[in-house]
Amino acid sequence: DNGHLTEAVGFMEQELAGISEESDTPESAEVLANLSRAYIRTDQNERAVDTADRALKLADRQNLERIVTEAFINKASSMHRLGRLREALALHISAVDLADRNGFVDLQLRGRNNLSVAQLENEPMRALETVYEGIELARRLGQRGMFNWLAGTCAMYSGSIGKDWDRALQLVDETLTSSPNGYDRARATLTRGLLLARRGVDLDRLVAEGKAAAEGINDGQIIGGIDYVRADVALFQGRFADSHQAALDAIAQWPDSEPFVLQPALHAAVITGHLANAQLIKQRLDAYPSGTPVAVAARVWASAVVAALEGRPQESLRGLHEAHELFRQIGLNYDAATLVVDALLLFPGEPEVRAWVPDARALFEGLGAQPFLRLLDEAVAAAGDAAPARASARESASKAVTTA
User: Fold this and answer.
1) Are 143 and 105 in contact (CB under 8 A)?
2) Is the separation of the CB atoms in 110 and 100 below 8 Å?
C-alpha cells in the first residue's frame, strides 16, 4: 500500500521464477497469496484469482490458516471485480470469520474493508456499518494504517449514501493530522476532496491539493480518484466538457468504479444535451461486468438519458423512474437525489418528476450539498418556478411543487 505496485509485482514474480506448482512450499504459497493482492491492485483480476488458487492448493491442505485467509480475501476481491458477486461475498464472509477466529488483526481489518466493497453495490448501508466496525476495531487495536484506509473508504461510501458527511470528514481529518505515510495522506486528501467538492468548498484548490499529495504514487485508485474529484469540480464550475473527460480519465485508472465515477459525466451530458457523450457513457456502463443493483441502476439511468436525447420520452421516463426507485431502495440517496436534477431538466413539466423534488432538496440541504442544491434551484426555475425561500427544507420544497 505504499503506491509502488508495479515494482512489488515484479519483485514477487522474480521470487517465484523457477518454482513450479508441484514444488510449492509454505514460503512460496505466502508469496503467491501476496502476489494475488498485488495483481488486484494493478487490475489483473484473472491472474489474481489463478494465483490465489495456486496458493490455496498447498495452504488449505496444510492448514496454513493465515495464507488461506489472505488468499480468500484476494480471490474474493478479484471475483467481485469480475462480476461474480455472490461467490465473492461468500468468500469474504469466510475470510473475516477465519481472521476473527485466528486473531489475524491485519486481516480482520482488511477483510472487513474488502467485504464492504462487495456489500456496497448491493447493501450500501450494511457496507458502511461494516466499515464503521472496522474503524472502531482498528482504533482499539492501534492499527493506524488500516484505520487510515477505512476512514477513506467511509468517506467514499458516505458520499453516495448521503449520510454522515461530517463524521466521514472528521475521520479523514484525523488521518491527515496523524503524520500519515505518503500513500495514506494521498488517499485521505482525495476522499476528503470528494466530500468538500460536493459541498462546494475550496473548489479552486481541491484538484491541485490531490495531485500534490499523490506525487510519485503509482496507484490506479489514487490517480483515478483525483480525476473523480476533478470531474465533480468541473461539473460544479460549469466546465462540462472537462467533467466528461475527467470521468473517462478516472475510469481508465480505476475501472471498477464506473457506476459511481461516470455520474458527473452523465450530468454534464444532460445539462448540455450532448447525445454522443451520453451514448458513450451508456456503452461503458453496458460493458461493466456486474449485475448488482447499483450497476443496474446506473445502466438504466444512462439508457434513460440516451432515450430522452434521442426523442423517446416515454421510454426515458420509465427508465428514470426505475433508476430513481432502485437507488432509493438500496440506500444510495445522494445518487438518487442527483438523478432528480437530470430528470427535471429533461422533463420539467412531468408531475412525477416534480414530486421527487422535495426529498432531493431536503437531502441536499441536510448535507450542505450546495452545488447540487444550486443545480436543483436552476432546474426548478427553468421549469417555470421561482427558487423557493428556505424557511425549512421540506416546507419550501413542497411549496415549489404545489404552486407549479
Assistant:
1) yes
2) no
| Whole-angstrom distance, CA of residue 308 vs CA of residue 278 | 10
Q: What is the pTM of this model?
A: 0.85
- Distance, CA of 403 to CA of 35 (rounded, Å): 62
For residue 277, give the nearest of 259, 260, 264 by alpha carbon.
264
- Cell 438504466 belongs to which residue? 300
The DSSP secondary structure of 163-201, one letter per residue, reads --HHHHHHHHHHHHTS---HHHHHHHHHHHHHHHHHTT-
The grid coordinates listed for 222 are 489514487
pLDDT, tens only, 365-388? 999 999 999 999 999 999 875 343
Rounded to whole angstroms, how far apart are CA atoms 25 and 13? 15
Other C-beta atoms within 10 Å of 208: how many?
11
Write out the three cell numbers for 372: 447540487
Report how far apart, in Å, the C-alpha atoms of 169 and of each of 29, 166, 191 are. Answer: 39, 5, 9
